[in-house]
């Protein structure tokens, strides 16, 4: 994930920061408790496409 792009992206629901999870290839929003997938190098920033974070992941 390009650090410059990551610095510009925010969670579409909360407008808060995102954290890149290299292992799962997704961007997570702790505040929204959502993980947005990255497909073919493109972040899919749609709430409907995001998965809910578990309690452990949200910490």
Automatic annotation (TrEMBL):
Organism: Hyphococcus lacteus
Gene3D superfamilies recorded: 2.20.25.10
Taxonomic path: Bacteria, Pseudomonadati, Pseudomonadota, Alphaproteobacteria, Parvularculales
Record-given protein name: UPF0434 protein ABFZ84_03965
The family this protein is said to belong to: Belongs to the UPF0434 family.
